[in-house]
Specification:
Structural class: mainly alpha
Radius of gyration: 16 Å
Strand order of the largest sheet: 1-2
Low-confidence stretches: 152-169
Number of helices: 7
Number of strands: 2
Helix content: 40-55%
Shape: globular
């Protein structure tokens, strides 16, 4: 039996590629700062739901229970950062206090500047707003913002300590 189109078509929505591109856009806007996987997961959610935190109109629809997205995103964020590292768009930065952090590579800016679609331009604008209004906060302030605006759960939401996860070690 021949495979159907649906079974052979690549997954684009919520794929490591889509999520990785968003991560690169956000990390490029915050360069040279580096962030943990948990922080990048927060930013991935917030960059498409900026209205939830008093920012510009959200890029993605305001669906009910969207705060639950964060609970399932960590593995996808890990996979997306691996893809972006392979493409030399994200650098892994060891930090004595915080463990392994990620930041945009020097090559990322060129790729981000080549993104010309209306969605890409809107994403870049949201990422720049996020960098100015949210990402510049301390980790403690970020945790408080996430808890207050998105939900009250353990910030390291899937029981994986950022300093000790194995995919990039």
């Amino acid at each position: 039996m021949a495979p159907t189109v649906a079974s052979t078509a690549p997954q684009l929505f919520n794929s490591p590629l889509e999520t990785g591109v968003r991560a690169v856009v956000v990390l490029n806007a915050t360069f040279p700062r580096a962030f943990s996987i948990a922080e990048i997961a927060w930013f991935d959610h917030l960059v498409v739901h900026t209205a939830d935190i008093g920012g510009p109109e959200s890029l993605h629809p305001d669906v009910p229970q969207r705060s639950g997205e964060l609970l399932v995103r960590r593995r996808l964020i890990e996979e997306s950062l691996l893809v972006m590292r392979r493409l030399h768009l994200v650098d892994l930065v060891p930090d004595e206090d915080a463990g392994l952090l990620f930041r945009a590579s020097e090559e990322a800016v060129g790729v981000v500047e080549l993104m010309r679609s209306a969605y890409s331009r809107a994403l870049r604008q949201r990422a720049e707003w996020l960098a100015e209004h949210v990402c510049s906060r301390s980790r403690l302030d970020l945790e408080e913002l996430i808890a207050a605006r998105i939900g009250k759960w353990r910030i390291e939401f899937q029981g994986i300590d950022d300093a000790n996860w194995g995919i990039f070690q």
